[in-house]
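WARN retry 2 of 3 for item q-0093 after timeout on previous attempt; input resubmitted unchanged.
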Amino acid sequence: MSKKDFERLLDPNARHDPPDWEEMHREWISHVKKLYEFVEGALYEYKDRANFEVKRKKIEITEESFGTYETESIEISVGGKQARLVPIGSSIIGASGRVDVIGPAGRSTLVLVPGSLDGPRIYSFISASQEEQRTKRDSASEETKQEALEWKVATEPPNIRYLTLNEDLFFDVLVEVLGGSSSF
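OK item q-0093 returned
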């Protein structure tokens, strides 16, 4: 924190609005519900198959920002194998949320990020003053803050990329975690 940041805290006329945790929580839950609607829509044509089932299951998550709350996971049973979509939380470094797709052959990560991002962004600024560093950092993060959020598949480290989630990619992820190969 710089001296100017400290002085802003002392300014009685400055606005110091705390984050609206309830609104952030509602948005997070809404994004998870939209993801689940997408998944159920992608799988709808298979709903009458004998060896296939999709169901939602209530779970509890604890996050520092929101405390403990109830949400849902999705369980997908295919030919005796099971995959689950499990919300991890919205307090994720570098993303506005994360849902893991977990199966007997592994795990894949879905992240909620601004649509233009194709991978994590790490900013490093070298400048003469802390004020200049803060201005550059703030303007870089503002570029993506106003963008619509999208669910993307995060590839494995060390070269993490974000791939826009669509129906074909979802099936690739599902097949991979179920052990039917694929490697989008």
